[in-house]
Amino acid sequence: xxxxxxxxxxxxxxxxxxxxxxxxxxxxxxxxxxxxxxxxxxxxxxxxxxxxxxxxxxxxxxxxxxxxxxxxxxxxxxxxxxxxxxxxx
Length: 89
Prior knowledge:
Layout (H helix, E strand, L loop, with lengths): L16 E2 L2 E2 L5 H10 L7 E4 L2 E4 L5 H13 L17
Antiparallel strand pairs: 1-2, 3-4
Helix pairs in contact: 1-2
């Protein structure tokens, strides 16, 4: 089975969960929110069927959705006394 192109993936689909975890899927919006939450730098990506797609392989719409997720995440991981390896926002 070939890996689909990013432009072929319906990112509006609700992905199934197994034991509370997405089954190898992470929408661009989810990825952006997670990156911001954990203090990681802005770096558009998403996962589908166990494959990670980065900015060079994403459509303009997918990058826009990642950006929305990144910009709209208001919570931050509490790292305690230590900073994350990515620094704090």
